[in-house]
Amino acid sequence: MRRFLLHLFAFAALQAVVGAWVWSRCPTDPDHYMAATIDKHARLRGASRPRLILVGGSSMGFGLDSQVFLDRGLELAPVNMGLNDGLGLSFMLAETADQLGVGDVVIVAPETHLYWHGSRDDTLWAVLEHRPASVACLSGKSARELSDQGLHFLSRKIRCAAHQVAMDSVLATLYRRGSFDEFGDFVAHRDQPRKSQAPLEHAWPAANSAAFDEAATELAAFATRCRLAGARCFLAWSPTRREQFERGSAVFSVLLDTLRSVEMPMLESPEEAIFADTDFFDRGPHLTGEAATRRSTRLAERLAEALATPSPPER
Amino acid sequence: MTFTTLTFGLFLVLVFALHWCARGRVGQNSVILVASYLFYGWWDLRFCALLLGSSLLDYAIARAIARSQPQPALARQRRTLVAVSCVANLGLLAAFKYFDFFIDSLALALEQVGVSAELPSLRLILPVGISFYTFQTLGYTIDVYRGDVRASRSLLDYLAYVSFFPQLVAGPIERARNLLPQLERPRQFDEATAREGARQMLWGLTKKVILADHLGAFVAEIYLGDGSVHASGPVLLIATVAFALQIYCDFSAYSDLAVGTAKLFGIRLVRNFAYPYFSRSVVEFWRRWHMSLSTWFRDYVYVPLGGSQCGPRRRWLNLMVTFTLSGLWHGANWTFVVWGAANGLLVAMAGRAGTASRELPSTLRGWPGFVAFVQMLATFTLICLTWVFFRAVDLGHALRILAKIFVELPSPAAWAQLGHHDEFLVAFAPLVGIFVLVEWHSRAAEHPLVSLSSWPRPGRWLLYSAMLWTTLYLMPDDPHAFLYFQF
Q1: Looking at the annotation, which residues of B are catalytic?
Q2: Least trusted range by pLDDT, from A10-14, B367-371, B373-377
Q3: pTM score, two decimals?
Q4: Among the four given CATH numbers 1.10.760, 2.60.40, 3.40.50, 2.40.50, the one describing domain A29-307
């Protein structure tokens, strides 16, 4: 046993040396897209109260124009927390749950697949690499997902190191921290021509409410946190292409029924979140600047109407 | 918990340490039991209750059978008990896996004769590995009934046998006579076995990530999930060959990881794959492919039906029933039923042609001769054709693919479409070629890395490191679960 362990440790140490070299070739990039989480959290803590907190993935980051909400005179300081759908719903909700205060308004609009799919790729690691304090946002579920994603994060680091060794150049991309504005909206694409790319596809689950129970439970818990903090929380839908909506219409129908049991009023119906292909900037659920303004205007109107009615009394 | 995650790596280190620190059989099996339920509960804690319920039922039934064993007057009671086990285990499978399938099929059939019926459906989530552990517990009860194994007295040993985490969710399906005795005594650490296990795990990991996952991505691109067929015949043919390799690399990788992990705990699991694509007949293929399932069906379905100890017609029928059920075991879809039946037909025909043999044929030495090569190629081609049914979304999809393959094969324009996939083909054709050569070279051993034990340590470590880092480098962003998890 001793000999086996000795050899095992020696082999592991050898791999650790290789790993350290790989890491040194691909250091943390301060302008990385995921590094925008630092600015978003800083704004979440620093913005004047009450705030309008927008929770979702990149569809929220790309697809809303916070200025529209300001112009509507809602007197709420917008904080767009939308960054990446790979973080999963649990993590997104946990990022804001502890920060809610009296008078805050929250719009939660996760990408539709987050109702049945957890965190993906190595996104949680990428966020923690840039903002280690976000470890506090890990629920039991997202901690499990973080652990499952470890090798994929390492894999990405190796590919990054290989790229650096081979090219020694930074990859030119629009998707960077500097592309977000002061509210946390992604704005760099707004004056760019849209890309004609095939849409990103997510497999639809069986139209079975059991698949959405976990997400509904998480949202219900978040709704309770909102109420206890004196905040008001609403649900909205992630922008969807018409063709995708039609293919998933049975799922949307069951999902809608499931979410009605959650004490979070809906600002719009799933049908209202349907957009034409030309309204999307790239293959993701990312609206163009013009479509984002349209969506924001509609949501701001609905929000103003909803806020005009008093919140339901606490049970 | 999946083998190809950091979670499993950390879990394995912890369980390995605890297992070898634990004192005696009870300590070691307690560690295995807790670890196995944690491993299984990682997917969904509710699944653990199902696993425990199924295990306890068969434990109690086996004990009751054992108590009545010496008394011939209680033979009927024993038959009843084993029937209860069959009904309970197969009922569990039927409820979770097949109920909605048969209801949907019935509704469709009624619809086609003009009757619209609102039939009840369960829409249950399929617990991972249910097909594997129900067969394991059922096999145990039948073995106790037959007197082939004695009923375990220790509940701890028995629960550890059913839930042993390396093989819990995708096999090999272990027989009590192999695994239970190993759990009924304390294990001593054996360095050679542990090293062998670690090597086998590395081989499995490499095969899964580098080949299975990337081949799978290509196959998914061609075998569209909506049942449409856009690719040309030759592209579909290449995708079918890619799927044949994908499913082999995926499932045999899982078995390598399972067998390798078990070896770290001083436990030897049965071999599940023996280079099936080098088979010279379909019969031989089925002796080399998913051996733990094939032998399960042989012992608990084919032989009780009369096996080959009856007339040729009855033998045909027995083969067809066995293979069709085996197909259905793989999934609740008519494609699997047809896949199983097609293989049954091929095996029956091979038997009639006299190419069937009872034993695993000896491994060819050196390079294959012309006849052996043609036999291997013909067997591989036949198996590939049946894989079309296995991979297709539905029967119509499978038939459209087969039709397109046969119709467009002579068309040069159809072959030109392969050019759209040249990036994949250029990258993976040489890799697959190397893989086949490595497997051929090492076909006498359980896996190719066995022969490395004679290499000097620096050479071995260099190769292991290269395999490890290449595997990590090529790990896809969107990790693919092992294919057999869905069964």
Answers
A1: 330
A2: B367-371
A3: 0.85
A4: 3.40.50
Please state the length of chain A.
Answer: 315
**CB A1 to CB B5 under 8 A?**
no
Residues 6+ apart with CB under 8 A from A64: A54, A80, A82, A185, A292, A295, A296, A299
Burial of A292 (0-12, 13-18, 19+ CB in 10 A): buried
Extract the tokens encoding B310. Answer: 């009856």
The nearest alpha carbon in chain B to A201 belongs to B225
Query: What is d(CA B457, CA B459) in angstroms, rounded to the nearest whole number?
Result: 5
Tokens of A78: 């917008």
What distance in Å separates residue A234's CA from the closest CA in chain B?
Answer: 29
Strand partners, A79: A53
At A111, the amino acid letter reads: E
Q: What is the mean pLDDT of chain B?
A: 89
Interface A-B: count of C-beta contacts within 8 A: 65
Q: Which residues contact B8 (CB under 8 A, 6 or more apart)?
A: B1, B2
Q: What is the pLDDT averaged over residues A248-277?
A: 90
Q: In degrees, to the nearest 5, what angle opens at C-alpha A38 toward C-alphas A34 and A44?
A: 120
Write down the residue that tokens 């517990």 correspond to: B137
The amino acid occupying position A214 is E
Q: Residue A282: enclosing H or E segment and its boundaries?
A: none
Token pair 């349209």: residue: A294
Query: Cβ of B189 under 8 Å from any chain A Cβ?
Result: yes
Rg (CA), chain A: 21
Per-domain boundaries in chain B:
6-188, 193-280+361-486
CB nearest A151 (choices: B123, B191, B475): B475
Q: Which residue of B has its CA nearest to A247?
A: B226
Interface subset of A 210-269, CB within 8 angstroms of B: 210-211
Residue B273 touches partner A, C-beta closer than 8 Å = no
CB-based contact B180:B236 (threshold 8 Å): no
Any idea where the domains of chain A sit in the sequence?
Answer: 29-307
Q: Does B481 touch chain A (CB under 8 A)?
A: no
pLDDT value for B204: 96
Q: Residue A162 is nearest to which of B123, B468, B473, comparing CB atoms?
A: B473
- Contact assignment for A151 to B6 by CB distance below 8 Å: yes
Which are the contacts of B470, defined by CB distance < 8 A and separation ≥ 6? B206, B210
Contact B472 A15 (CB under 8 A): no
User: How far does the CA of residue B124 sit from the closest CA of chain A (Å)?
Assistant: 8
**Closest by alpha carbon to B243, among B3, B420, B483, B487?**
B483
